[in-house]
Specification:
The complex is a heterotrimer of chains A (79), B (361) and C (252).
Chain A: E1 4-8, H1 18-22, E2 28-34, E3 40-44, H2 55-59, E4 65-71, H3 75-78
Antiparallel strand pairs in A: 1-4, 2-3
Chain B: E1 4-8, H1 9-19, E2 24-27, H2 34-43, E3 50-53, H3 57-69, E4 74-79, H4 80-85, H5 87-95, E5 100-106, H6 119-124, E6 134-136, H7 141-158, E7 161-167, H8 168-172, E8 174-178, E9 207-209, H9 223-240, E10 244-247, E11 254-257, H10 261-275, E12 280-285, E13 287-289, H11 293-301, E14 305-309, H12 316-324, E15 330-333, H13 349-360
Parallel strand pairs in B: 2-3, 2-4, 4-5, 5-7, 6-7, 11-12, 11-14, 14-15
Antiparallel strand pairs in B: 1-8, 6-13, 10-12
Helix pairs in contact in B: 1-2, 1-7, 3-5, 10-13, 11-12
Chain C: E1 2-7, H1 28-41, E2 48-52, H2 60-63, E3 67-70, H3 76-87, E4 92-98, H4 99-103, H5 107-115, E5 121-126, E6 129-130, E7 136-137, H6 164-169, E8 174-181, H7 185-203, E9 208-214, H8 218-221, H9 225-239, E10 243-247
Parallel strand pairs in C: 2-3, 2-4, 4-5, 5-9, 8-9
Antiparallel strand pairs in C: 6-7, 8-10
Classes of the chains: A alpha+beta (79), B alpha/beta (361), C alpha/beta (252).
Chain lengths: 79, 361, 252
């Protein structure tokens, strides 16, 4: 079960591959797609294994990744 | 009655700065302006104002940059070789449009004696980028005191560095100085100061850059937008801030042009010549940039001849030449006409009078 | 289930409408991100001033949402010293510099600010060459590295690299020096801790603090981003060891 989800901002990505390298669960993989700048883009291929650890976002030099953790809806917002 | 002090020109700089509410002085020792940095070291820390001796003149001008960024009045002083080192910082200050005051106590080439050899460097903007600085040329300790205050006012008004051009004679000479409080009028708020977001009314960040127009801002989306604004500023200064003094100019056939201590020498020669019935006048530029070109041109059109007196090999004569536009004869009394042909020599009134007599006969 | 933001673009990272010109795999961006996070975590957003010289790192002056000044190459410590003495102890003055900026052209301002025990903090990014100008020899270039001005590799003729964190730490006026890197998530957190500590030394008025941050420069090293990260680990870190070199709470 996925604990979280990542969002990749492709307009900021420079295709360095650090996210793929540092994702311990193998959730991210560099794809064959390219950005407007002609640089390879990563894919979030394995969402089920994501533990929302934050490492891909820490290591991303271009602030292209946002990480969200799934949390129980608090009673206040559930109402 | 305000206080009167018998002080050196160099000390008058300090009193002027104190009276103008200068909050920081950053300097490096160099003859003949050491009394200035020593005055600030003595008087500023005890009043809770910043004083810092830098590791070079490059350091002092950049400390001035730092102080100016915070929006308070700051200054430095130096002499000719130090002035050369400061050119990078001067360019940055002008390009970032930061107000500050630099007192330049000139010395002759690399001797520690007097001269006026930095005229061109000071008036033309000696660094990169084609900037201009307002240059005020005092002739006495009193004017050093007054002009330092005027310089701070003009710097704040136009957000531009202002140079007060002294020299070894003015700096070392002792004269009575009246500690008066001129009122120049209101100044705009320094909303641009870099002091942390907590100190801004709107709470937004401020950004200062030495490469205005390079990193786009709403005001200057590109370089030419900044250049346009800067050109307007220069044109306004040229129109509004020209300052000069004249003596007996109306009927003069020969007009002396001199600044700084040489203006006092020239005035004495003028009075001696008038006693002999020679129709001599004097134009003394107070702002060396912007230069009083129009006054000189008017006189040239009326057929006057010009005698430029300056203690260098001839620098201001070029500006006079541009002003008269070929409509008058220009002659020169320069450092080679000193009473002794050595570095201790000075231009004496007798020498100027000799030249006046030769030209009028 | 709700989504809760964990990590990513820091709050103080400004969303600006220009393409941020960091090369793929260049860790200047990581460093700016760490700075944003550290300032935010210390609650210094409203009373911080960032002084940034000229180089690849100049982008920090428009990326970080605090008051900032882009100033001359190499003069950050002089400018920061004067600012700090005027704005007083409640405003944090931070210089953001490169290796050439802080150690070559700016060696005099850096050393004298440290010697005067200025209450400022310097963050120096060390990527072993001059990135903006195309990869020339820097004061931190390791022996053997090929740069455009050492086309056959740096040899003894061009001298030896400067270990800044160690030698600045030897000055009495210095409160804190450390060296960090971004070669792993663990190092990222450690470097952030160093940066935080350096700012705390300034906040507490102890003295000058200095943190050197090792960065990759894939474009000028002519390596892939992943290879350049490996090079930092295998070649640069042995020469520039990570850790804290000076940490005092009071300068006697």
């Amino acid at each position: 079960m996925a604990k979280g989800v990542i969002e990749i901002k492709e307009n900021r990505c420079r295709g360095c591959g650090f996210c793929e390298m540092f994702c311990k669960k193998g959730c991210i993989e560099m794809s064959t797609r390219v950005s407007n700048l002609g640089l390879p883009l990563p894919d979030f291929i394995n969402p089920d294994d994501c533990s929302a650890c934050g490492m891909c976002a820490w290591m991303c030099p271009h602030t292209a990744i946002e990480i969200y953790e799934y949390v129980e809806a608090s009673p206040a917002t559930a109402l | 009655m305000t206080d009167r002090l018998l002080i050196q020109g160099n000390e008058a700089v300090g009193w002027g700065a104190l009276n103008a509410d200068c909050r920081g002085f950053f300097g490096y020792p160099i003859t003949p302006q050491n009394e200035i940095i020593e005055w600030f070291a003595r008087e500023f820390p005890k009043r809770g104002r910043a004083f810092l001796q830098s590791a070079s003149e490059t350091g002092s001008i950049n400390m001035v940059h730092g102080g100016a960024l915070t929006g308070v009045r700051v200054m430095t002083s130096t002499s000719s070789p130090g002035w050369a080192l400061m050119q990078e910082g001067m360019s940055n200050l002008a390009n970032a449009e930061l107000p500050c005051v630099i007192v330049l106590v000139q010395r002759g080439w690399n001797t520690t004696r007097h001269a006026q050899t930095d005229y061109t460097s000071v008036t033309q903007g000696g660094g990169y980028g084609g900037y201009k600085t307002i240059v005020l040329a005092p002739k006495s300790a009193q004017e050093l005191y007054d002009f330092v205050q005027l310089a701070f006012y003009l710097a704040d008004k136009y957000r531009n560095p202002v140079v007060v051009l002294s020299d070894a004679i003015l700096g070392q000479m002792m004269e009575a100085v009246e500690l008066r409080n001129p009122d120049f009028g209101p100044l705009p708020d320094k909303d641009w100061a870099i002091t942390g977001k907590a100190n801004h009314k709107d709470g937004n960040r401020r950004f200062s850059s030495i490469g205005q127009g390079m990193l786009p801002t709403p005001k200057h989306p590109n370089l030419c937008a900044f250049w346009g604004d800067y050109k307007n500023k220069i044109d306004t200064i040229k129109k509004k801030e020209v300052r000069y003094e004249t003596y007996l100019l109306d009927d003069a056939e020969l007009v002396l042009v001199a600044f700084g201590y040489v203006a006092r020498v020239s005035l004495e020669a003028l009075l001696a010549a008038r006693n002999k019935g020679l129709k001599v006048g004097l134009i003394r530029p107070i702002t060396l940039w912007p230069f009083p070109s129009e006054t000189i041109r008017d006189k040239a059109k009326k057929g006057a001849t010009f005698l430029v007196v300056e203690d260098n090999m001839g620098q201001m004569i070029e500006d006079v030449g541009v002003a008269v536009q070929g409509q008058a004869e220009i002659h020169l009394v320069n450092a080679l006409d000193r009473h002794l042909p050595i570095e201790e020599g000075a231009i004496y009134p007798e020498k100027v009078l000799e030249k006046i007599e030769a030209l009028i006969k | 289930m709700e989504k809760k933001w964990i990590a990513g673009t820091p709050r103080l990272w400004r969303d600006i409408p220009v393409i941020i010109p960091f090369c793929p795999g260049c860790q200047h961006g990581t460093a700016v991100k760490a700075l944003c996070e550290v300032i935010d975590e210390l609650g210094m957003e409203k009373n911080s001033v960032l002084v940034v010289g000229i180089g690849c790192y100049t982008m920090a002056s428009i990326l970080v949402d605090v008051d900032s000044a882009m100033i001359a190459h190499g003069r950050a410590c002089d400018i920061a010293s004067a600012m700090k003495r005027i704005v007083g102890k409640d405003t944090m003055v931070i210089t953001w510099q490169g290796d050439g900026d802080a150690l070559a052209i700016g060696c005099e301002p850096t050393i004298h600010a440290a010697a005067r025990s200025e209450k400022i903090t310097t963050f120096m990014i060390n990527n072993g060459n001059y990135g903006t100008t195309g990869g020339q020899l820097a004061p931190t270039t390791p022996l053997g590295q090929v740069t455009t001005t050492t086309p056959f590799g740096r040899n003894q003729d061009q001298g030896y690299p400067i270990q800044a964190a160690e030698f600045i730490g030897s000055l009495k006026g210095v409160a804190y020096t450390a060296r960090g890197a971004f070669t792993s998530p663990a190092n990222y957190q450690k470097t952030k801790k160093y940066m935080k500590k350096a700012l705390e030394k300034q906040r507490d008025g102890v003295g000058y603090s200095f943190v050197e941050i090792l960065s990759t420069c894939p474009a000028n090293w002519h390596m892939s981003p992943l290879d350049s990260l490996k090079r930092v680990e295998e070649e640069v870190i042995p020469l520039f060891p990570l850790g804290e070199f000076k940490d005092v709470d009071k300068i006697e």
